[in-house]
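This section describes the prediction task in plain terms. A model, or a person checking by hand, is given the sequence of a single protein chain and must write out its three-dimensional structure as a string of tokens. No templates, partner chains or ligands are provided. The sample shown here is typical of the held-out split.
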Amino acid sequence: MPTMRAIALASAVLMLTGCGGEADKAAPEKAEAAAPATADAQLVALDSEVARLQALAASDKQAIPEVIAAQTAFTAARDKCGAGAEAKACLVPLYAARAHALREGSAAARADDPKSISIGPLPLKCDGIDALISVSYLNADPGVAYLAWGGDKAVTLTQEVSGSGAKYGGKDASGAYSFWTKGDEAMLTLPGATEAKCKFERAG
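The expected answer:
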């Protein structure tokens, strides 16, 4: 069953660097995602997936209400990202966080669907890291991995070329991250830390 951390994640959408700001109080309560004004295939795919997940969650009577309601705040934050290269740096983490929160807060959003490009959240345990890490994937082009842990920490990583398995990388104000997975095994490097061996655990 989703925990209160799902609610915290939904609220944290507006706290992403460069994407802050209060929700537009005049916006409708059930604001729908709309394709960004760009021809960028990755952004179009992410926007479409978030809209699909929101629709499923909104129809799920067991979904966490706060997660569904956070769509209005998400839409306001998304619209403030603007356009161009800087906008993409704002939008990708925003979409990833929203998709993760929707999937975590609604069983309907996690249901198998051939139209889905998202997977997770999946629980990941890493050596030397006390908190369990929750991982969601968005199979766009390029792919995205969203990692959340400790209740208030999260990072969005972008898929990179890998000779074996799937590799993701990225950075934030703390430094660089590296995440490699193959089957149930994974390796994670956090800023200022050595590479940690990880393993995905069975959910539930």
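For orientation: The radius of gyration is 16 Å.
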